[in-house]
């Protein structure tokens, strides 16, 4: 299991607004199976089997091109741990628990 | 107002766990004024006046060194918009509204 | 054609040095076909057909695990342009030419 | 000493070309003192005292706004090592030396 952050920036759009492209990516995510995801103010975070996530990211990368954009910068950050089962919830919980206890 | 994503990775730790360093960064954030923040599974997102955020990020970058780490890779992504008041909540809401309406 | 930046950070390596992992990744790149690459002080940049690059990146992501590392953070940034043939050299040249002429 | 990667993406530029903005950032860098820099196909890498670099990055972040852009996404990655003097050249050399020797 991996937790992966993705942000997709269309370049050369007429206005500074990107939300329509992010929304269209989330329509693709809504139909995807076996991958959890969370929209954040700076990116979308995915959780699941790494290769399933990466093929989904590849599909998301195409979304702005389908809307007529000619250039896209897609950033992906993979957090992949093999000694422990990594989940979005587990990562946040581990920090919150440490915050409750002394450092 | 800017929305800024920060992730701080200590290099050369003895174990793969990073949550204690993230928690210590959040202790710094808890004492900071004038900056909103949100912990996500891949980073922490800050909202506020850009220079205030960047000086806070500079402070956070030092946290692992105080814990004895010798190398730190800090990634920062700034989303800065001058035609509109940018907030964490506003960015997420803009996507959610587009998801409710046809694309 | 796409130009893709990749950086692979092993977590929990006990010492701050990462060059042995980067070198091992470059041994994989040396054997790869159809993809140009350039080592920079912060990452490695690849140029070629996007899907070929992404499967190579997937292979590079495994390199630290083979060396016994238990956690890896891999960052990938894709620059993909469909209106023009994008190359590493072309991107740098475009900037250098603009630097020679007035802005 | 730190080695820092910076990439500045203007949003809403109507055309996909970014080289004029990168060139204008490099005009600022040409006048800066005490910071070495290297243009790569995906970003610009800076080497020097961390706080000097970060204030220079802050200045570079404003460049697209001066050219009329309304939104800018600036990505910064800091590699900061306290056990060793980190330089762009030293980081690349360390990998090249390892490549020459067996792993």
UniProtKB/TrEMBL annotation, chains A, B, C, D:
<comment type="similarity">
    <text>Belongs to the UPF0045 family.</text>
</comment>
<dbReference type="GO" id="GO:0005829">
    <property type="term" value="C:cytosol"/>
</dbReference>
<protein>
    <recommendedName>
        <fullName>Thiamine-binding protein domain-containing protein</fullName>
    </recommendedName>
</protein>
<dbReference type="InterPro" id="IPR029756">
    <property type="entry name" value="MTH1187/YkoF-like"/>
</dbReference>
<dbReference type="InterPro" id="IPR002767">
    <property type="entry name" value="Thiamine_BP"/>
</dbReference>
<dbReference type="InterPro" id="IPR051614">
    <property type="entry name" value="UPF0045_domain"/>
</dbReference>
<feature type="domain" description="Thiamine-binding protein">
    <location>
        <begin position="4"/>
        <end position="96"/>
    </location>
</feature>
<dbReference type="Pfam" id="PF01910">
    <property type="entry name" value="Thiamine_BP"/>
</dbReference>
